[in-house]
Amino acid sequence: MTPFITFPFSPILTLPKIFGLNSSASPTTTNRYLVLYNIALVIAYLTIFAMRLLHGEERQVFTLNKVVVYLHLFCYLTVFLSNLLSNWLHSKTLALGFLKLEIFDNALKKLEFELNYKKMRRVFYVSLCASSGVYAYVVITDLIIDGLESDLVNWFSIYIPLTMNFFTAFIISFTLFLLKERYKKLKEYLVLVLSGEVSCNVKHFTNWYLELTKISNSLLSTFSLQISSMFLLILVTTTSNAYMLMKIELNSTQYVVIVNSVLIHLTEMVVLIFTYYSTSVKADQIVAASPKLLTGVPESKTTFRENMECHFMIKENRLRVKIFGMFSLDPSVLLSMAAAVVSYMIVVIQFKNNEAPIPQDKLMRNANRGVLVRTDKDAVDLN
After folding, report:
1. Could you list the residue ranges that cross the membrane (predicted)?
2. If residue 61 lies in a helix (H) or strand (E), which one and from where to where?
């Protein structure tokens, strides 16, 4: 734990270390023991992944479609490697971003706008316990129903990256919540400035807004690779599971496992989109109120020209989540993702072979892995 970062930032830097998502000791140094832990994770998972591939080659795989099996495996491997790569590239940047955010909080305290750390502490622990409980239910259910009866190698090859993916989503969501609280306080302060209840140099307020936006964009950009791989995995697994629900007759336990998988992935996506949207709304409220600076600010010694410059600086610097530095996470991107889901499902259904259905009493589902296993040890790929 970094000695200079206080709550609520220390838990959000400590939690990912458990899952190999953060190896920084400070904004300038790396913890060598955490790096060794990361290397051990890579060796262990690649070994499991290789065993999974070799194990799969021993089975007879029918269509539909062998390519989609490897697509699933590629998604799991991509999620695992993208989380570790993001850690190696950006963990110190993430720690630096939270340090800057703490300095920003100290500046707000000088203005008598102290943040409610008790609320943030309560939100962190309640949300962590609730989300961990839900995820533990899904994992244990799949392990009892499927993992112990089929193959633990397959089970670990899925749930190691899924666990990293789940807690990455939690960390990103809580980071967005922290940023939203600060934009909320900044908006409250702007209202007081515009009403003349506090005396403040408009340039100083503009600098605070620009600094918070810069910190926000820097923090969120460290997650861009993880967000991309996360959405890829979610789209592939949810559409495959939805296809199985529509096309395959399942018993109650198989149905529970698939529905749990779909819901946990959709929840990750919805929570991320909602927290980003709510944070953007708070930031946009400041941008929307900035034209009032042109009408003059009581108790301010700035000129109209300076107020106009501040207005345009606020307007041109907005909160944005960049994916690979190429596009923002906005409604058009989400629409294209929805189109990709539909296209993927059409392709999956269209290219399904016309084999006769397999009797229900001869099927045992290997959950979330796109494989139906006959009692005679043949396998049917549902992906």
Report:
1. 34-55, 67-85, 123-145, 157-179, 223-243, 255-277, 323-347
2. strand 61-62
Reference 55, options 145, 148, 161, 151; nearest CA is: 151
Number of other residues whose CB lies within 10 A of the CB of residue 195: 12
Of residues 243, 261, 222, 236, the one with CA closest to residue 337: 236
Model confidence pLDDT, tens digit, residues 35-52: 999 999 999 999 998 888
> Containing H/E element for 2?
none
pTM: 0.81
Distances (CA, A) of 322 to 164, 215, 219, 354: 21, 14, 11, 43
Q: Which residues contact 45 (CB under 8 A, 6 or more apart)?
A: 80, 157, 160, 161
Please name which of 178, 163, 188 lies closest in space to residue 220, comparing C-alpha atoms.
178
328 - beta bridge partners? 322
**82 phi/psi in degrees, rounded to 5:** -65, -35
